[in-house]
Write a structure and sequence with these properties.
Length: about 450
C-alpha cells in the first residue's frame, strides 16, 4: 500500500497518460487498505487474518462517451495497457449527454480540511487477541448466558487518492479500530442470541471492551421467553440500534439518481414539509474523527456541512455530477465510488438532530407501545414508501420496558412515518449514520 503522496502521484500520472493518449477528460481513483483481525470463541483462538490490497481505477471520456477500468497491478506496463483498454472501450461506449467530470468551479482547492481521521497505532495480533478474549469473558460472565458465538477485535488503515484532468488532486488516509461479541442465552428451543460492537477511528475512542461484552450478554438474556402482542395499531419506538435505518431509507429516497429515474417516494417533495416542525437532518463530512468524514467527494468536489431537512422541510437532494445534470442542479458534494465504477451519491456522517424529550419521556408518552431493537428483512418499497419489516423488541407499559416480543412485523408507509416521528434527546455519534430513539405514534403490528 502506498503512502498518500505516492498514491496521489500515481493517480495524477494515470490521468496525464489518459489525456496524452487522446481522451478529452479523465480521472483516476486510488484505493488502498490494510486490515488485521482476530476471532476467538469460548476462550480459544479461531482465526487470525491480515490483508493488504490496493486498486486504481481510470475513467476516460471521449466527448460524451466514457468507460472505466481498474487494476490491482500498479506496474508501469500494466497501467499503460490499462489506458489503452479504457480508451478503446470509451470510443465504443454509447453517448451520454449527462456524463462528464464535475464543474471545475466546484472542486476543492488549496489545503484540504483536517479531519483527524488517522491513528498511526497498529496493534499486533496478541493485543487484538487479548481484546477479543476480554470482551468474550465479560459476555459469558452475564448470568443466563450459555454459549458464545465468538468475539473479535480488528484494526484497519485506508488511503484514498483522486486526480482529475479538471485540475483536482488530493489524498487522505483513515484508520479504524473495532471490537464485537456475540453470545447465546438460554437452552434448547428457548435460546436467544444477541451481540454488541463498537468501532472508532482512534483506539482511545473505542468503548471499553469488557463493557462491549457485558452489553452483548445482557442483551441476549433480556430477549429470553419472548411473546407476541395482540395484532393491531400501536405506537412504535425505534431504539438507536435500529432508528438509523430510517435515515438510510431517507438518504436513498433523496439520491439524485433515484429522483431522476422517478423511482423515489420523495421525488415530488422538494421544498415541502415531509417531517414535523423542528426536525432537522444533517450531513456533516467534516466531523473530526467521523467514521464517514472526507475532505472531498469522489469527484473532487468541495464538501461542507449541509442541512438536508430544516425544520421539517426537505431542502436538498444528494447528487453526483451525472444525476445533478439530469435534475438541473449543481453537484452537492456527495459523490461516492469504488475504483472500478462510475460515481453514485451517498451521504457522509448523516444524523437527525436530537429532539426535546428524553428517551424515558418517549417511553412514557403512551400507556402501551412496542420498542424495536432489531429489524429483519428488506420489506421497503422505494417507489411508494410502503414499509413492512420483521422485528424483535419489547412491550412498553407505563413507561417501563416489559416482556420481550419476537416474530412480529411492523408496517406503515415511510411518508406517514416521517411526517409523525419524534426524535428523542439521546443522540450519540457512534456510526456513519446516527439517530436517537425515535417514536412513531402509530404503526400496524402483526405476526410474522
Amino acid at each position: 500500500m502506498q503512502v498518500p503522496e505516492d498514491a496521489q502521484r500515481i493517480a495524477e500520472s494515470l490521468v496525464e497518460r489518459g489525456i496524452a493518449a487522446g481522451a478529452s477528460a479523465a480521472d483516476a481513483l486510488y484505493v488502498g487498505g490494510s486490515s488485521s483481525s482476530v476471532e476467538v470463541r469460548l476462550g480459544e483462538l479461531e482465526a487470525v487474518s491480515r490483508s493488504e490490497g490496493e486498486q486504481i481505477g481510470l475513467r476516460l471520456f471521449v466527448g460524451q462517451r466514457s468507460a472505466t477500468v481498474a487494476s490491482s497491478d500498479l506496474s508501469d506496463e500494466v497501467l499503460g495497457t490499462l489506458v489503452e483498454r479504457c480508451l478503446a472501450m470509451a470510443n465504443e461506449a454509447p453517448e451520454d449527454s449527462y456524463s462528464g467530470l464535475a464543474p471545475e468551479v466546484l472542486l476543492e482547492r488549496g489545503e484540504l480540511p483536517w479531519l483527524d481521521s488517522y491513528d498511526p497505532f497498529e496493534p499486533d495480533p496478541s493485543e487484538l487477541k487479548s481484546r477479543a478474549l476480554e470482551a468474550e469473558r465479560a459476555a459469558l460472565a452475564v448470568e443466563g448466558v450459555t454459549n458464545s458465538s465468538g468475539a473479535s477485535a480488528s484494526a484497519s488503515g485506508n488511503i484514498m487518492a483522486l486526480a482529475t484532468s479538471g485540475g483536482f488532486s488530493g489524498a487522505y488516509r483513515s484508520s479504524g479500530h473495532g471490537c464485537s461479541a456475540s453470545v447465546v442465552a438460554g437452552e434448547g428451543a428457548t435460546m436467544q442470541r444477541d451481540h454488541a460492537w463498537h468501532s472508532a477511528r482512534f483506539l482511545e475512542d473505542l468503548d471499553n471492551v469488557a463493557e462491549i461484552g457485558a452489553k452483548a450478554g445482557a442483551r441476549a438474556v433480556a430477549r429470553l421467553n419472548p411473546t407476541r402482542p395482540k395484532p393491531g395499531k400501536y405506537p412504535v419506538i425505534f431504539d438507536p440500534r435500529v432508528s438509523s435505518s430510517l435515515l438510510s431509507h431517507f438518504s436513498g429516497a433523496i439520491s439524485g439518481s433515484s429522483v431522476a429515474r422517478k423511482t423515489s417516494f420523495l421525488q415530488d417533495k422538494m421544498g415541502e414539509a415531509i417531517f414535523a416542525r423542528g426536525v432537522t437532518i444533517v450531513d456533516d463530512p467534516l466531523r473530526l474523527r467521523g467514521l464517514r468524514s472526507r475532505p472531498f467527494d469522489a469527484e473532487g468536489v468541495h464538501v461542507a456541512r449541509c442541512e438536508l431537512v430544516s425544520n421539517g422541510v426537505l431542502k436538498s437532494w444528494i447528487a453526483e455530477s451525472a444525476s445533478a445534470r439530469q435534475l438541473g442542479i449543481e453537484p452537492t458534494g456527495h459523490a461516492a465510488r469504488g475504483a472500478g465504477g462510475a460515481p453514485g451519491a451517498a451521504p457522509s456522517n448523516l444524523y437527525i438532530e436530537a429532539g426535546q424529550r428524553s428517551r424515558e419521556e418517549l417511553l412514557s408518552v403512551f400507556p402501551e407501545a412496542v420498542l424495536i431493537i432489531e429489524l429483519i428483512g428488506q420489506g421497503v418499497n422505494a417507489v411508494t414508501g410502503d414499509y413492512s419489516r420483521g422485528a424483535v423488541g419489547f412491550m412498553v407499559r407505563g413507561g417501563e420496558i416489559a416482556e420481550p416480543v419476537a416474530e412480529i412485523t411492523i408496517a406503515s408507509n415511510l411518508i406517514d412515518m416521517f411526517a409523525t416521528l419524534e426524535p428523542g434527546a439521546d443522540l450519540e455519534f457512534r456510526r456513519g449514520i446516527d439517530a436517537p430513539t425515535i417514536l412513531i405514534p402509530e404503526m400496524t403490528v402483526g405476526a410474522a
